[in-house]
Every structure is written in structure tokens, then in C-alpha cells.
Amino acid sequence: MEKEMIRTEKLRVIGELSASFAHEIRNPLTTIRGFIQLMDVKENATDFEKRYYSVILQEIDRINGIVGDLMDIAKPNGDNQYVLSNLNNLISDITLLYDGQESMNNIKIIKKLDTQIPSFFTYTSKLKQVFINMIKNAFEAMPDGGSITIATKFVEQDNAVEIAFTDTGIGMDEETLATINKPFFTTKETGTGLGLPMCYMIIEDLGGSINVSSKVGEGTTFVVKLMIAEDSNTSQNGNIKTVGL
Ligand code: ADP
Ligand code: MG
């Protein structure tokens, strides 16, 4: 438990620092990138040189990716509002974003939304960040296509809701499963290893939990469980407007 706290705290510090450094890092990188590109297209550049330029560009893009992910973690409080949220609406709004990508990647998103889910106050844009990350990882786990099932469930006895993301992707072995929430752990060539640590941090902050089960070659399920605080459940009042995004 103590270890968990240290990990979360570490990530928070990384996030806060990066918010102020991100621009400072990105500006010179943009300049470097521009010059390398110029050298790359130069007429008398040899194949030998071009090979190195492309590696340099890739690595610059990787740094940009990491900086971008760190900025996501450190998103300012401005878009971190505590609002009345309906998770089914939120999921529907998010999946809309993937309409085009679905057919392109031969992936089907299946929604199984529990209509019994009550609306409750929460940090909706933070949850959106988590859900988008889950979907992104699922897409990346299915290079040859497949399906993502997103199921919501009201767990009445715990006054909690569960959102399960199940993909039919490559799955994970035990070793990977044990490491996925460590910052910078990635099995992807262009991964940053920051997506899941961010998800864990956000959900832990909200007093929830994430459970994962996976089988190599079969797929993976992430279950996000959120407790509905007693005073945040206003679903009895049908007139209150719910916010999707
Ligand atoms: P990244 O996506 O940049 O690699 P994440 O923190 O999002 O970083 O994920 C860490 C690692 O967890 C991934 O590199 C991958 O090995 C594993 N992983 C996460 N989600 C899935 C999934 N749905 N299916 C298989 N592996 C996954
Ligand atoms: Mg990821």
C-alpha cells in the first residue's frame, strides 16, 4: 500500500513539473525537428545520412509523445470540474469519437449500457481521459481488428458503478500484467508507458479501483469501479440535467 502511495505521489510530481517544462522542451525540439527535416530532403544527402535522420526524427517524435502524455497527466484544474455525470452518456459521447477509426481498423465497439446506472457528481473530464486511454490501448492491442465491449453496471449493494472494457486483442502474460501500472513501462515501439499509470492515479484519487484480467492471444478486460458518494447521488431528482462530456 505504501509503495502504491509513493508511485502515485511520484507520478503527480512528474506531472506537475512537466506542466511547466513541457513548452520549454517542445520549442527547441520543434526547431531541431525542422532542421533535421531540411537536411533529410537536401539533394546531396546520402542514404546513409537519411537513415540516421529518420531515426533522429522518430526519437524526437517519441520525446514529443512523452511530453504530450505528461501534459495530459498535469492537465490544469480548469477542465477538472466536479459535475453531475451520466456514465452511459459519457461512454456514448466518447465512442462517437471512434466512428471513423472503427472501420479503418476493422474494430467493432459494442456498448452494453446498464440503464439502472444513476447519475452522480464526479470529475467527468478526468474519467473521460481514463476511458479514452482504455479504448486507445484496446485499439493498439488489436492490430488485425477485433471488438471492444464497453459495459456499464450499477452495483447496487456497494452503491458503485463498474465500467468494463473488454477487447479481443493480444492479451498480456503474467509478467506484463504485474508491471503495467509502472510509469514508463511499455511493450510498444512508440508507447510512452504513461497511459495506465495516469488511469490508476485518477481512479485512485476518485476512491475507485481498476481490476484487470488478461489471457495471451485471447484478450483483456479492464474493470473500473467507482463508488458513488452518498451526497453525490442526485438521481432521485429526474429534472437535473446530466452532463455527458
Ligand atoms: P503505452 O500504451 O504507451 O504502452 P500504457 O501505460 O497505456 O502505455 O500501457 C502499458 C502497457 O500495458 C502496454 O505497453 C501494453 O503492454 C499493456 N497493455 C495495456 N492495455 C492493454 C490491452 N488492452 N491489451 C494488451 N496489453 C495492454
Ligand atoms: Mg496506452
UniProtKB/TrEMBL annotation:
Residues 20-230 form the Histidine kinase domain. It is found in: Cell membrane. This is histidine kinase. The lineage of its organism: Bacteria, Bacillati, Bacillota, Bacilli, Bacillales. The chain holds residues 488 to 732 of 732 of the full protein.
